UniProtKB/TrEMBL annotation, chain A:
This is Cytochrome c oxidase subunit 2. Residues 216-368 form the Cytochrome oxidase subunit II copper A binding domain. It comes from the Bacteria. Residues 116-211 form the Cytochrome oxidase subunit II transmembrane region profile domain. The chain crosses the membrane at residues 50-71, 91-113, 141-164, 184-204. The lineage of its organism: Bacteria, Pseudomonadati, Bacteroidota, Sphingobacteriia, Sphingobacteriales. Pfam families: COX2 (PF00116), COX2_TM (PF02790). Keywords: Copper, Electron transport, Membrane, Metal-binding, Respiratory chain, Signal, Translocase, Transmembrane, Transmembrane helix, Transport. It comes from Pedobacter cryoconitis. It catalyses: 4 Fe(II)-[cytochrome c] + O2 + 8 H(+)(in) = 4 Fe(III)-[cytochrome c] + 2 H2O + 4 H(+)(out).
TrEMBL record, chain B:
It comes from Pedobacter cryoconitis. The chain crosses the membrane at residues 44-64, 93-118, 139-158, 187-209, 230-255, 288-308, 320-341, 353-378, 390-412, 424-450, 462-485, 505-532. GO terms for biological process: aerobic respiration; electron transport coupled proton transport; respiratory electron transport chain. Belongs to the heme-copper respiratory oxidase family. This is Cytochrome c oxidase subunit 1. The keyword S-adenosyl-L-methionine does not apply. Residues 27-595 form the Cytochrome oxidase subunit I profile domain. It is a multi-pass membrane protein. The keyword Electron transport applies. Residues 1-22, 598-630 are annotated as: Disordered.
Length: 421, 630
């Protein structure tokens, strides 16, 4: 009897502890809230430095640890009393965990739905290139298949965890293998994957193995990457991008173009990439220093630029910038290309604008772009100096290239003053 | 062959064990330069945990930068000085953080911390061996690993800072100090550390393979080994075959950096300075790196799969479903993992023909992975599941393996990879399948074998708290990142401030950072539990989980040589749980069939006519007795 009494006292004590904890924390919370409100009302600036100190958060965390420790002790007391009373353990942790898995499943499914619908709407718009549409289609097929498997297997995983939790009444079913079942779940994924592989393989080939149509030759554009800038080179009237050699690179000849090659004489530079819609474009990608990656996500294009190696990517844009602006309902929308391979401290800011325009607009734009060649370079390569008419753009050219170097440097440097604040 | 060596070791080791009984080991030979596999396992584990905490801390630092790129945290300047002037992390140091975070996590935590710990602990204990084939080499393996860790961490204390070219250290960025400050001395230290680390892994791996192949106890044929051992064996083989290739690549990089060769460098102009290197190719490094790098992913995940198999089977009180299929799928993964490295290079300018080939091999590897997943689910079916913290972690592991594995189907598809390569989609993918899944496999192992390692139990409730917070937060951290990738946000961006379209992801970044901070704080529950229980935990019983495998037949107190008397003989496979007709719901591997006549099944005898005859006679006798009773 006395033991009983003692134990029930203990139970009460445990309950009291829990109660005090909750009371205290809620009191603390109220106090804190009141305090916060008071300070907020009187001198709102004062709390801010406190929120910024690490000590404040350390104390908060220690308080949380203390709370957990007290709850743990209370549970321990409760369990011990149950044990002493010869009652079954108070909290059945198997059930708790089983139920938690089901809750996790339900909340998780909602979370996935939320992610797909909310964040899923924030992703890239439809592809703006021919091959991009194929990639998107395949992405959607893969997404549907994997989502089915993802949801299905998780339903099974968490529901099995719930339904087959130990209750102490059952024995597990001895079921070491079933060859038919195993064959099914080897062959079915294999078949599904074969379909995906075939589709992927055909798409991949259609992207990289293009048969050139002599009536619709692609526009060659050369892109050269360097630490933290891009140089765009248009081929000029001859439609051929001239030869270059890295050993010729100087302050005035930033690409190392060999002007003894006639193809170089009409090559033009551009501050942005402007391309005519529905015309094939062939990108010639090179790098001056380290690896970079030419990434133009709206067109589903990415290829690394590698020093010492030229790589090519051919594509056909299908949507003009103006059309895309109406499509995504954002008048400020711009196509971009940027770097996606780690290349140094300015990696995060290495971008250029891409404009897809009608053929007429392109034709009007391209004639205005300056040539790389100028009189300094002509002297250097022992070419006849061209007088006045060409001199204006020629003079603009070096100024432009230095300006470019200058703009790219401050772009990186610009963050530094900001950092020092 | 194994039986011959076996008898030999039996006698020798017995003698050995006797010897050791006489003299006390000094502190140094017991705790520091120990040659005992159990102590080495603990050394690997604790070093791994320390490194994991460091790497997690680094990740919190760069998550802070991503979430609040324009706020300053004065405390950072206190600790990091010049690298965080004004309380803001600098771009160079940000890259160093992601580089070292990746290196530590992949190599030091999930390779050495995971297979180093559990291969060392379990190979001898589960196979009935007194110690590793070469205990000395085993000790050397740990100490080389330790030195590798120290060298890697020392790069935080040099002027130019740690390596910062990403954990894949692609040259030319990693080869030219002018390209980024981390490619100075920091990179040299990274390379030295890596050479030491690989040497450590090779010594460990050779030891594991030779122990498994030569020293198994009597009766332990390959098809009676627990799946953990199969996983460790195949992991070790993978490591032995692939790590030397990394060293080859690293040595060439050292030559390029320090001796003026041009293996990886060609046609490079830094600013206007033309470098003299000619004829090399940066792509060569990528081939060499990923020839290790991809098997490395499986080196990380296979032990986690093995541990989960064992933990799920024990705690479902059911045999693992499709034991043979599990082994064959591990073998399939091992072989295929050598011919898929190119899927990391689809868009590096590698010949597109190769892209097609690597896509095929990559997607084939999903088949054995799918088989494993379905077998785990079938093991849970109609089980009698006990939710120990280890079991929770194993279930978490399966969940992450599914989630992360499925996104691998996107990335393994060369056409889809064009747009997803090097974006946050990749980050999300491998953090789920390689990071979280492997970490949860490792945690499952720690929770399950803690009683074996330290002779004490971990607190279960703290285990539950730790599991649930970590499990939920890991999903909260990594699931949203997929969508950043789908929006074309590249990884390793110091800040999202320069792009208009990335602004909308800043709130997501803040959310993710908070989730990461909560997850990191939840690890305090684990760390406290781990270190407190070493000294104050509840004393463990000999077989706390009622498991079948041999390690639970050793005494709780560790002794050199593992078993006080004869090494036990093995009679059956390790998964006889809930066998119909058996007295208990588990039958240890050391129980001969003659003692379990009532639960024997025809296929148990593998066609042995004599045993089948005896069983049949017994059954007839039983039937007769029953008839008489009736």
């Amino acid at each position: 009897m006395s033991l009983r009494k003692f134990i029930s006292n203990k139970t009460i004590a445990a309950l009291a502890v829990i109660l005090t904890v909750f009371a205290n924390t809620s009191a603390f919370a109220q106090e804190a809230a009141a305090g916060a409100a008071a300070t907020a009302a009187k001198k709102p600036i004062d709390m801010f430095p406190i929120y910024k100190t690490a000590a404040f958060y350390t104390l908060l965390f220690l308080l949380l640890c203390l709370f957990i420790a007290i709850v743990g002790k209370a549970m321990r007391v409760y369990e011990l009393t149950r044990e002493a009373q010869d009652k079954p353990a108070g909290i059945n942790w198997n059930t708790v965990n089983g139920v938690l898995f089901v809750i996790f499943l339900i909340v998780g499914l909602y979370g996935v739905y939320f992610e797909y619908t909310v964040h899923g709407k924030m992703i890239l718009p439809d592809a703006a290139s021919e091959h991009g549409a194929k990639i998107d289609q395949m992405f959607n097929i893969t997404l549907i298949l994997t989502t089915i498997v993802f949801i299905g297997t998780h339903l099974v995983l968490f529901l099995f965890s719930y339904f087959y939790k130990n209750t102490g009444k059952r024995k597990a079913y001895y079921y070491p293998h079933n060859n038919a079942l195993e064959r099914i779940w080897t062959i079915v994924p294999a078949l599904v994957l074969t379909v995906l592989v075939l589709m992927g393989f055909l798409t991949w080939r259609s992207i990289f193995y293009k048969i050139e149509d002599p009536n619709n030759k692609p526009l060659n554009i050369e892109i050269t990457s360097q630490q933290f800038a891009w140089t765009i080179r248009y081929p000029g009237a001859d439609k051929i991008v001239g030869k270059k050699n890295y050993k010729l690179i100087t302050g005035t000849n930033s690409l190392g173009m060999d002007f003894n090659d006639k193809d170089n004489l009409d090559d033009q530079m551009a501050e942005e990439m402007v391309i005519p819609v529905n015309k094939p474009v062939r990108l010639i990608l090179t790098s001056k220093d380290v690896l970079h990656s030419f990434y133009m996500p709206h067109f589903r294009i990415q290829l690394n630029t590698v020093p010492g190696m030229t790589s090519y990517f051919e594509f056909t844009p299908t949507i003009t910038t103006a059309d895309m602006q109406t499509k995504v309902n954002d008048p400020a929308f711009k196509f971009l290309f940027y770097c996606s391979k780690i290349c140094g401290s300015g990696h995060y800011n290495m971008q250029k604008v891409v404009r897809v325009v009608s053929q007429a607009e392109y034709d009007a734009w391209i004639v205005k772009q300056p040539k790389f060649i100028n009189n300094d370079l002509r002297k250097q390569f022992n070419l006849p100096i061209v007088p006045e008419p060409a001199a204006a753009p020629a003079a603009a050219a070096p100024a432009d290239s230095t300006a470019k170097a200058a703009t790219s440097a401050p772009a990186v440097a610009m963050n530094k003053p900001a950092l020092k604040k | 062959m194994s039986t011959i060596t076996l008898h030999d070791t039996h006698n020798n080791d017995h003698h050995d064990g006797h010897d050791h009984g006489h003299h006390e080991q000094s502190f140094i030979s017991k705790y520091i330069f120990s040659q005992d596999h159990k102590m080495i396992a603990k050394q690997f584990l604790i070093t791994g945990i320390v490194m994991a905490v460091i790497a997690m801390g680094l990740s919190i630092l760069f998550r802070l930068q991503l979430a609040w790129p324009d706020k300053s945290f004065p405390i950072l300047e206190t600790f990091l000085g010049r690298w965080a002037e004004g309380g803001r992390i600098k771009p160079d140091f940000y890259l160093a953080l992601v580089t070292i975070h990746g290196t530590i996590m992949v190599f030091f935590v999930l390779t050495a911390g995971l297979s180093g710990t559990f291969s060392n602990l379990l190979i001898p204990l589960q196979l009935g061996v007194r110690d590793m084939a070469s205990p000395f080499m085993n000790m050397l393996s740990y100490w080389l690993f330790f030195i590798a860790c120290v060298v890697m961490m020392s790069s935080f204390f040099i002027e130019t800072g740690p390596a910062s070219a990403g954990w894949t250290v692609y040259p030319p960025l990693s080869a030219i100090p002018k390209a980024i400050s981390g490619s100075g001395l920091g990179m040299t230290l990274w390379l030295i550390s890596m050479v030491l680390f690989v040497a450590s892994q090779l010594m460990g791996g050779i030891n594991y393979v030779s122990t498994v192949l030569n020293m198994r106890t009597k009766g332990m044929d390959l098809w009676k080994m627990p799946l953990t051992i199969w996983a460790f064996l195949l992991t070790a083989i993978l490591g032995i075959l692939s790590f030397p290739v990394l060293v080859a690549g690293v040595v060439l990089l050292i030559f390029d950096r320090s001796f003026g060769t041009s293996f990886y460098l060609s046609d490079i102009v830094m600013g206007t300075q033309v470098l003299p290197n000619e004829g090399g190719s940066p792509i060569l490094w990528q081939h060499l790196f990923w020839f290790l790098g991809h098997p490395e992913v499986y080196i990380v995940i296979m032990p986690a799969l093995g541990i989960s198999s064992e933990v799920i089977s024990v705690n479902s009180r059911k045999p693992i479903f499709g034991y043979h299929a599990m082994v064959y799928s591990l073998i399939g993964i091992t072989i295929l993992s050598f011919i898929v490295w190119g899927h990391h290079m689809f868009v590096t300018g590698m010949n597109p023909l190769l892209g097609g080939v690597f896509m095929i091999t990559t997607l084939i590897i999903a088949v054995p992975s799918a088989v494993k997943t379905f077998n785990y689910l079938a093991t849970l079916w109609r089980g009698n599941i006990r939710f120990t913290p280890a079991m929770l972690c194993a279930i978490g592991m399966v969940s992450f393996f599914i989630s992360g594995g499925l996104t691998g189907i996107f990335l393994g598809n060369a056409s889809l990879d064009i747009n997803l390569h090097d974006t946050y989609f990749v980050v999300a993918h491998f953090h789920l399948v390689m990071g979280s899944a492997a970490i949860f496999g490792m945690l499952a192992g720690v929770y399950h074998w803690y009683p074996k390692m330290f002779g004490r139990m971990l607190n279960e409730k703290l285990g539950y708290l730790h599991f649930w917070v970590t499990f939920i937060c890991a999903y909260l951290v990594f699931f949203p990142l997929h969508f950043l990738g789908l929006d074309g946000v590249p990884r390793r961006y110091y800040a999202f401030t320069e792009f208009e379209f990335m602004q909308k992801w800043v709130t997501v970044n803040i959310f993710v950072t908070w989730a990461a901070i909560v997850a990191a704080l939840a690890q305090v529950a684990f760390l406290f539990n781990f270190f407190y229980s070493i000294f104050k935990g509840k004393k463990a019983t000999q077989n706390p989980w009622e498991s079948n495998t041999l390690e639970w037949t050793t005494p709780v107190e560790h002794i050199h040589g593992n078993w006080p008397g004869e090494i036990p003989t093995v009679y059956r496979w390790p998964y006889d749980y809930s066998k119909p007709g058996a007295e208990h719901d588990f039958i240890p591997q050391t129980v001969p069939y003659s003692q379990t006549m009532s639960s024997n099944m025809p296929h148990d005898f593998e066609g042995n006519a004599e045993s089948e005859r005896i069983q049949k006679e017994w059954e007839e006798k039983q039937a007769k007795e029953k008839a008489i009773l009736d």
